């Protein structure tokens, strides 16, 4: 028989997911956050409010609500085959709908080319908390037969990315995984952790160090935002540089730093 605590958690999770905005999120993530908030507040009403607020901060704040993925897939299907300018134009238009990729658009022409220059063409990528970043594949220096694994917590977005991979014959997969309770084990040449660490730290400061310890890769491109979603800089460069230095303590990577107006990126190489 389920305990009282189990029943209260199941009720809270059901209530959170009764809203379409949160129904599209990984069940695991909703359960993890709901369990913490229930423990903190005891009261279901306060825990419900807090769980929704935290899920919004982690995911909803970034993504345009009610994104029509089927329409966007049709837009990609309608592109003339082999027209890379048209593909980049459509991909850029869609990346505008996720704040994180939208912020990177002004520097996208140089971002990957510069940060990954020292690696040559890359054959395998794992993109953690990817958002719509797999749409930036045409800007990345990749080998002809590269593989690409993409992970995030937004279910319809990952279904769209999987369909996008299939449409363009990209080898790889797009899966729903909550990085607070799942660790990737596959071996890849490059892992992307773009603007991810501050979110993981919001959940639990132990997650990012644990991930770095287990990742089976030669290189990691890790970045931090230099502006908040509201557009303020608020000393973020100094704060995140210090946090990054703390995260690196005891790890032996060669580090290259790349700074843009709204993002600071570090390429870590073994
Ligand atoms: C700041 S955005 C970064 C997106 C992308 N990496 C980029 O830089 O363009 C954070 C992303 O993390 C995802 N996310 C939040 N919590 C997560 C978790 N626990 N596990 C996996 N992804 C998560 C969100 O859905 C969102 O797409």
Give the name of the CATH superfamily of the largest domain.
Vaccinia Virus protein VP39
Radius of gyration: 19 Å
Give the strand order, joined by hyphens, for the main sheet. 3-2-1-4-5-7-6
In total, the number of domains comes to 2
State the helical fraction.
40-55%
pLDDT < 50 stretches: none
The average pLDDT value, as a whole number, equals: 94
SS element count, helices: 12
Overall structural class, as computed from helix and strand content, comes to: alpha/beta
* Element-by-element helix/strand order: HHHHHHHHEEHEEHHEHEE
CATH topology of the largest domain: Rossmann fold
Main CATH class of the largest domain: Alpha Beta
Share in β-strands = 15-25%
CATH architecture of the largest domain: 3-Layer(aba) Sandwich
Question: How would you sum up this structure, described in words?
Answer:
With 270 residues, this protein is α/β, with parallel strands linked by helices. Helix content is 46%, strand content 20%. It has helices at 4-16, 20-23, 27-41, 44-60, 69-77, 84-95, 99-104, 108-115, 155-167, 197-203, 207-214, 236-248; strands spanning 122-128, 142-152, 171-176, 187-194, 216-225, 254-259, 263-269. A seven-stranded mixed sheet has the order 3-2-1-4-5-7-6. α1 crosses α3 (27-41), α3 (27-41) crosses α4 (44-60) and α5 (69-77) runs parallel beside α9 (155-167). The N and C termini lie far apart (50 Å). Residues 29, 58-59, 62, 100-101, 129-131, 133, 152-154, 178-180, 194-196, 199 line the site of S-adenosylmethionine (SAM).
């Amino acid at each position: 028989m389920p305990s009282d605590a189990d029943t209260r958690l199941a009720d809270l999770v059901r209530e959170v997911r009764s809203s379409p905005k949160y129904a599209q999120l990984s069940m695991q993530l909703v359960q993890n956050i709901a369990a913490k908030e229930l423990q903190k507040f005891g009261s279901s009403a306060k825990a419900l409010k807090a769980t929704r607020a935290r899920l919004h901060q982690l995911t909803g704040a970034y993504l345009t609500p009610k994104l029509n993925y089927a329409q966007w897939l049709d837009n990609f299907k309608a592109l003339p085959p082999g027209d890379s300018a048209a593909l980049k134009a459509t991909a850029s238009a869609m990346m505008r709908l996720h704040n994180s990729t939208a912020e990177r658009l002004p520097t996208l022409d140089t971002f990957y080319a510069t940060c990954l220059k020292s690696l040559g063409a890359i054959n395998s990528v794992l993109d953690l908390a990817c958002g719509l970043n797999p749409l930036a594949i045409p800007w990345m220096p990749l080998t002809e037969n590269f593989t690409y694994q993409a992970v995030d917590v937004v279910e319809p977005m990952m279904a769209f990315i999987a369909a996008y991979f299939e449409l363009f014959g990209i080898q790889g997969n797009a899966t729903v995984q909550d990085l607070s309770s799942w660790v990737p084990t596959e071996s890849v040449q490059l892992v992307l952790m773009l603007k991810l660490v501050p979110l993981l730290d919001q959940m639990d400061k132990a997650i990012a160090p644990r991930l770095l310890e287990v990742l089976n890769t030669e290189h990691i491109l890790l970045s931090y935002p230099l502006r908040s979603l509201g557009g303020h800089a608020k000393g973020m460069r100094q704060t995140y540089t210090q946090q990054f230095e703390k995260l690196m303590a005891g790890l032996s990577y060669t580090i290259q730093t790349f700074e843009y107006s709204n993002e600071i990126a570090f390429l870590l190489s073994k």
